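ok so for the tutorial part 2 we go from a plain amino acid sequence to predicted structure tokens. step 1 is just haveing the sequence, like this:
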Amino acid sequence: MKHSLPLVLALSLAACSQPAPPADNAPALGGDPIAARAVMIGTEGPSLPACSSISRVKDGGTDVYWAPGETRAVKAKLAGGAKVSLCEAADNDAWFGVVFAAPGTDQDMCGVGKSVPNAREYQGPCRWGWIKGGTVRLGA
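step 2 — the prediction. this is what the tokens look like for a chain of 140 residues:
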């Protein structure tokens, strides 16, 4: 029994130095890599609000995604009736870039009701993302 301790230690050390499993052992992820595309504000020019309208999410709610066309990673969930500011449309209105306040936060603090001098990426303080077209009541 006294001689088995070095053998156990040697086997333990050998196990630690094993290479990682090959990449083909990892689960496959379908589709392209997840992408993020910030929502643009001020695309209608400096004389109009940074985002075109306040709308409400239709009953049943909707998922918010990181980019138009990306449906694998949900960034947030919005309940039916939640207010969103529509800022940008993509893919023939199949997707809308929206800005929305966190629950319990005032929508007016998002700052998209005022004009901005140039079109730019929205950088806060509210949340932003992409929703599928047809999931909001426009101008509601």
